[in-house]
Design brief:
Two copies of one chain form a homodimer. Chain A has 349 residues and is an alpha/beta fold. Helix content of chain A is 44%, strand content 15%. In chain A, the strands form two sheets. The first copy, chain A, has a six-stranded parallel β-sheet, with helices on both faces. In chain A, strands 7-6-8-9-10-12 form a six-stranded mixed β-sheet, with helices on both faces. Chain A is elongated and about 90 Å long. Chain A starts with 12 loop residues before the first helix and ends in an 11-residue tail after the last strand. The first copy, chain A, binds a DNA duplex (30 and 30 nucleotides) through helix 2 and helix 4.
Chain lengths: 349, 349
DNA sequence: ATTTTAAACTAAATCGATTAAATTACTCTG
DNA sequence: CAGAGTAATTTAATCGATTTAGTTTAAAAT
């Protein structure tokens, strides 16, 4: 005998109503806790509750959402969920949103505005109520439209200077300035850096922090010391740039990685080149993944408050969804500079 | 003037129908590409398409799902999306599912069957069509129920020996056996290991692989050399176990970490204890995170085919959803043993 | 001229909830 | 005892799609 589709039909309000010989309305009211205010007799209310349990009733959220216009769902669109920074944040967002009764749907845009648009639309079709977004390059128009449609959203990690929105970011300029100043205080004069997507606000801020730190240390900025990494061809590009900076004619002996994904690959390259950290190259990096503590020479790094970013983003969004919001919220969180040993052991004033 | 709610009402089929003076049915048929088979005149069909584009029509997927019973959505419940293993797999699953037109919803169970049940129910209320699940300890009953309800699902990472289901796992026994044999071939007689959740099938297999490798090398298994890590108190527990094994009276000089999350913390502990790898301790580990390549002494490790697991899981699930499936599929994928330098440089037979 | 047939389109039911408004059956009040 | 008031419940509309079963009109066949 083959497996007939034991179609264990899912229980609906109707099923309960029929079994008890009452109306669907009554059942709905009871199960939504409105028995008292609708003056439904305790006897019947109890029966309904019992039957619902017995039949293992679970509301169909599609139907409910269609009727009420509320899905209790938000979407989190990030660059790439397999990136540890976002993965960690995804987890925080998931947990925090749950506290307020929201389910989160995730999506990866791959820094591609076309994908981002597809995702936005797909999520809108599914009636999510709000978004947390790390906007890609070239997505200004999309985000502006979202705003015009009055759809609640919070930007994270990046934002647009010329668009008034909620956002939660870190103080990239400040962090970058401190990191590079750390190197200048060690006496390094030639400081190279690896950059990627310099058009993104946060990456631009990081570059400016680098420039200002140099300038304040009386060092002339040299464009050729800025390695521009190609996202499409990531790994090779990092290798190429690190090699170029460390080898003649540049012979750079201090490197600032503007993201950890570049840093991790870059350090691999440094290792392969048989350069020692910090003896042959001093290194600082934006972001502070678990890796950095484990290196032979633990890496001095800028730690972003990932959890706080996630928490804050959810809080702002939920405020707006429950219309407790009092205008747009712009949050700039501080970073922590984790001094380890990758720049040497010198102590400075 | 304050922001009045410019309620940019979303376009529905009705809106299009009214504008054109035709029926909703007709609009629906055209937009679903059934114009030809429903003998709708080209002229009107074209008008509909145009108007839909003009009004930027997007189908309400709640309504569609309610009516058709299809949501084109699957759920992926893992232990923890901030764990790099699952984060990476989440990404693969997201991309692969999209190829078949499915959207994925993610959830973290924290190895907690109560949470897992809540999630299952929540996803079922939202009418996901199938699941990919890494089942927690104590979830046999839940999974059995899922099976009885004829809801399509694929287990990953772990499965139940006494429950017939789809699954995609790796050959844990074999991988473990090879890793430990690697150590015995280096001449180590006392080999410690860190274990966690030994009741989970895959962890049990790893333990058995360890035992058999010892036995085949003529080494007696000592239960006291198996450190049992406590999940609740993770970090401290790893430290405590590593210390116990490396210090007198055990003085163990070879360690096998049964997961990378233990390995990473364990190596941190080893570093703090000023033990050198592999001079003072040889190390092998299950899992192969990016970290391991970057260590001062790159770690010899068992690399799981994360992408393949994700791909295969999606394929099996989609097969079943499109009812192309021919019975349950049980897939055991091979691992790759990445020999690096954490056991020393000796070359053996 | 009448019946068939085909083409082009529509009415209405349905999915499973929520909710405003209505109904029924009492009990009270003056 | 008519009319008001209230408690307990139901009717029916609605959300936005899909889909079955028609309907209408005109052309083709008899």
């Amino acid at each position: 005998m083959k497996s007939q589709d034991n179609n264990h039909k899912v229980t609906s309000l109707q099923d309960i109503a029929k079994k008890l010989g009452v109306s669907v309305t009554l059942v709905s009211l009871v199960l939504n806790g409105k028995a008292k205010q609708s003056r439904i007799s305790d006897k019947i209310a109890e029966k309904v509750l019992l039957m619902a349990k017995e039949l293992n009733y679970r509301p169909n959220q599609l139907a409910r959402g269609l009727r009420t216009g509320k899905t209790n769902t938000i979407a989190f669109i990030m660059a790439d969920i397999s990136n540890i920074f976002f993965a960690r944040m995804a987890r925080v967002v998931e947990d925090e949103a749950e506290k307020y009764g929201y389910k989160v749907m995730f999506g990866s845009s791959d820094e591609n505005p076309v994908k981002l648009e597809r995702m936005l639309n797909m999520f809108l079709e599914r009636k999510v109520e709000g978004f947390i977004i790390s906007p890609t390059l070239g997505s200004l128009k999309l985000i502006r439209q979202l705003k015009e449609k009055n759809i609640p959203f919070v930007l994270i990690d990046r934002f647009f200077r010329n668009l008034d929105t909620n956002y939660v970011v870190v103080d990239n300029f400040d962090a970058s300035y401190k990191a590079v100043s750390h190197l200048t205080k060690f006496g390094y004069k030639k400081i190279g850096t690896l950059s990627i997507f310099p058009e993104l606000t946060q990456m631009n801020d990081r570059l400016n922090g680098y420039k200002d730190a140099l300038s304040d240390a009386g060092i002339r900025f040299e464009n050729k010391y800025v390695g521009k990494v190609d996202f499409e061809n990531f790994r090779e590009s990092v290798y190429e740039n690190v090699r170029k900076l460390l080898m003649p004619p540049y012979n750079i002996r201090a490197l600032y990685f503007q993201t950890c994904i570049m840093g991790i690959v870059g350090l691999e390259c440094i290792r392969e080149m048989k350069f020692r950290v910090p003896l042959d190259v001093a290194v600082v990096s934006f972001d502070d993944p678990a890796e950095y503590k484990l290196f032979e020479t633990p890496v001095t790094a800028i730690k972003q408050p990932i959890d706080e970013i996630g928490l804050k983003a959810v809080n702002i969004l939920v405020d707006e969804l429950k219309s407790k919001s009092s205008g747009l919220q712009k949050v700039v969180l501080p970073t922590r500079f984790m001094v380890r040993r990758s720049c040497g052991n010198l102590r400075y004033g």
